[in-house]
TrEMBL record:
PANTHER family: HTH MERR-TYPE DOMAIN-CONTAINING PROTEIN, REDOX-CYCLING DRUG-SENSING TRANSCRIPTIONAL ACTIVATOR SOXR. Keywords: DNA-binding. InterPro entries: DNA-bd_dom_put_sf, MerR-type_HTH_dom, MerR_fam. This is MerR family transcriptional regulator.
């Protein structure tokens, strides 16, 4: 297990490549969490260092300090990874760990406090220390691809919420069908059949929609 490191203010500022005055300013703006106090000495740790490096990266990408403060607040009050994953990791989806600056790089200009909160509410994102965890590599890739095509992230998330409702209904339909004729342990073995039905029906539905042309 890695030993937790702690730093005095001057050492933390040096490691982060900023001045002590800037560090104090960030602390006053609540861009970083309060330090641990030991008498009159303030001790900072690697979480503070990671946050300072994130702030620097976001500033380089054109975010303002006000915007970063709002993002930090959404980050600090978001769902943690335990809430996101529930009793365990998804059985077929692969969660992805991201730093806040890596998320900002994937969705240039679209990572707003509102979109971050919406993604956390939807269950796409959770927090784990100084990292974000996206619940599905496939959903992350599709979302960023849609944004690159010019679709606002807010609308992608709204569509995701609607898809979630339909997906829950389809899962219930499939589970009810199987459980009427087989024990619950068969659900996992037969789930690829449900996925194939949904993928085929969606493909056919898209064919029908494209044949209709513009409405």
């Amino acid at each position: 297990m890695t030993e937790k490191r702690e730093y005095r203010m001057e050492e933390l500022a040096r490691l982060a490549g900023i001045t002590v005055r800037t560090l104090r300013f960030y602390r006053e703006r609540k861009l970083i969490p309060p330090p641990r106090r030991e008498g009159r000495i303030a001790w900072y740790d690697d979480h503070h260092l990671a946050r300072l490096r994130t702030i620097a990266a976001l500033l380089d990408r054109g975010h303002t300090l006000n915007g970063i403060a709002e993002l930090a607040d959404a980050f600090d009050h978001g769902r943690d990874v335990g809430d996101l994953l529930g009793l365990g990791e998804p059985t077929e989806e692969t969660p992805v760990r991201l730093t806040p600056e890596e998320l900002a790089a994937r969705f240039e200009g679209e990572v707003t406090p509102e979109n971050l909160a919406a993604a956390m509410e939807l269950g796409y994102l959770g927090t784990d220390g100084d990292e974000l965890v996206h619940i599905s590599h496939r959903l992350l890739e599709v979302s960023s691809a849609l944004v690159r095509e010019g679709i606002p992230l807010g609308e992608v998330l709204q569509a995701g919420a609607r898809v979630r409702e339909h997906a829950d209904a389809l899962a219930e339909l499939f589970a009810d069908l199987i459980l009427r004729h087989a024990p619950e342990r068969e659900l996992h073995r037969l789930r690829p059949l449900a996925r194939s039905v949904v993928e085929a029906e969606l493909s056919l539905a898209l064919d029908r929609r494209m044949r209709k042309g513009p409405e």
